[in-house]
Amino acid sequence: AQSVAQPEDQVNVAEGNPLTVKCTYSVSGNPYLFWYVQYPNRGLQFLLKYITGDNLVKGSYGFEAEFNKSQTSFHLKKPSALVSDSALYFCAVRDTDNAGNMLTFGGGTRLMVKP
Amino acid sequence: DAGITQSPRHKVTETGTPVTLRCHQTENHRYMYWYRQDPGHGLRLIHYSYGVKDTDKGEVSDGYSVSRSKTEDFLLTLESATSSQTSVYFCAISEFMGKGYEQYFGPGTRLTVT
């Protein structure tokens, strides 16, 4: 079984400040972890993924995420937020034993960046 | 959108009527998925396909059926629509990139059941 939790429905941050969007996961095997972003009235866009290797993963638009196995977390971060980063962010997980490549998504976190 | 189109993009239908949503991809991907998106629930998997005529159920498959008669098309059917099926429906494909598979999503279909 695989599951994801995004504990914050909304994160508010001022433009120029660092941002963190939290994600924790549960899998029976090893995790593949993903972050997606959704802008209004659009589909989901891939941001970054963790498969193996370095725990710090860099992705699109200056975002990065840190895989922490002991805390079963995969928090999304950006050093300096932009107003244009305001969107809905989804964390997703896939167990490496999942033959159908099926993802389980968290409930989403709305990021609001204020000028 | 990784060559994924969905049709229709918007639909309003009445309770009890059948509805079919279409997902079309142009890049010969083996894996295709149907999700629904509802506030507070993120995306939930309805059905997926791992090849022509090969499909399986996801987390929320009750009331839905799918068909895949050719690689490029994955159809989602609501046999008798209910108000609880009002949602935004996303199709996705899975593509091997770098060290692992990534899913890419279509633009979505907004379905309202009145």
Structural features, described:
- By secondary structure, chain A is an all-beta fold.
- Chain A has one domain: Immunoglobulins (Immunoglobulin-like, Sandwich).
- Chain A contains no helices and twelve strands.
- Chain A has strands at 3-5, 10-14, 19-21, 24-26, 31-38, 44-50, 56-58, 64-68, 73-78, 87-95, 104-105, 109-114.
- In chain A, the strands form three sheets. In chain A, strands 2, 5, 6, 10, 11 and 12 form a six-stranded mixed sheet that branches. A four-stranded antiparallel sheet of chain A has the order 3-9-8-7, with no helix packed on it.
- The N and C termini of chain A lie far apart (41 Å).
- Chain B is mainly β.
- Chain B has one domain (4-107): Immunoglobulin-like, CATH 2.60.40.10.
- Helix content of chain B is 0%, strand content 63%.
- Chain B contains no helices and eleven strands.
- In chain B, strands 2, 4, 5, 6, 9, 10 and 11 form a seven-stranded mixed sheet that branches. A four-stranded antiparallel sheet of chain B has the order 1-3-8-7, with no helix packed on it.
- In chain B, strand 7 and strand 8 (73-78) form a beta hairpin.
- Chain B is globular, with a radius of gyration of 13 Å.
- The A-B interface holds A 4, 6, 9, 32, 34, 36, 42-46, 49, 51-53, 90, 92, 94, 100-108 and B 1, 31, 33, 35, 40-45, 48, 50, 56, 58-59, 90, 92, 94, 98-108.
Give a quick set of tags describing it.
heterodimer; A: 115 residues; mainly beta; Immunoglobulin-like; 6-stranded mixed sheet; 52% strand; globular; B: 114 residues; 7-stranded mixed sheet
Report Rg of chain B.
13 Å
Average of per-residue pLDDT values of chain B:
93
Indicate the CATH topology of chain B.
Answer: Immunoglobulin-like
Task: Please tally the β strands of chain A and state the result.
Answer: 12
Percent helix of chain A, as a range, is under 10%
Helix and strand string of chain B, N-terminal first?
Answer: EEEEEEEEEEE
What's the main sheet of chain A like? 6 strands, mixed
Helix/sheet category of chain A: mainly beta
Largest binding interface between chains: A-B, 27 and 29 residues
Taking the sheet with the most strands of chain B, its summary is:
7 strands, mixed
CATH C-level class of chain B is Mainly Beta
Order of helices and strands of chain A: EEEEEEEEEEEE
